[in-house]
Amino acid sequence: MPTIKRTWTCTECGKEFGVGEWTCADGTSNHKVELKTYRSLDVPTAEGTTPPGILPPVIRSRTMVCNVPPPHKIMDGGDAKMVGEGSVEFINGVFLTTDPEQQYWLDKKPGYQATKEQYDSVWLSAEARNANKEIELKAREERLENDRNDLLGQTQAKVKRETARP
Ligand SMILES: [Zn+2]
């Protein structure tokens, strides 16, 4: 089980706050914290195959996750008020949020904490994984090539300076 955070520092107002103290300085919206990505390994099973040459749909699944946050009481002026449960929507098994209240409740739910590697291994086809690998390799090669050119440039400049001496 991942550890559940109990205190945060708001990136908007700078205040440190705990569980339940979600409201930011404006009194209505929630505090903001560092963006966190939640990933689910729940891949749609009845996808069917896409004919060759046709790209698969960009949005393959939308999943509502309920009880984020669960129904709860808030104090409005002097009155206690019930707020209904909230929900968040995972698109293609991914949900990103800076809302600490959503993070707090999602952190309590197993099944939405997959790592990027775990996610890729179930969501991407073998072809897509290979294509990604190829892009990574190419980027690495380009970096090496750039480094080599830098070195070459430096050496040439040095040689030029040395030969230019009387
Ligand atoms: Zn705040």
Explain what this protein looks like in three dimensions.
This protein has 166 residues and is of the alpha+beta class. The strands form four sheets. It has a two-stranded antiparallel sheet. Strands 3-8 form a two-stranded antiparallel sheet. Strands 4-7 form a two-stranded antiparallel sheet. A hairpin with a 2-residue loop joins strand 5 (72-76) and strand 6. The mean pLDDT is 88. The protein folds into two domains: 7-123, no CATH class; 126-166. It contains three helices and eight strands. Bound molecules: zinc ion. The site of zinc ion has 7 residues, from loops. Zinc ion binds at residues 10, 12-13, 15, 24-25, 31.
Number of domains: 2
Distance between the termini: 72 Å
Proportion in β-strands = 15-25%
Overall residue-averaged pLDDT value: 88
The H-and-E topology, N to C, reads as EEEEEEEEHHH
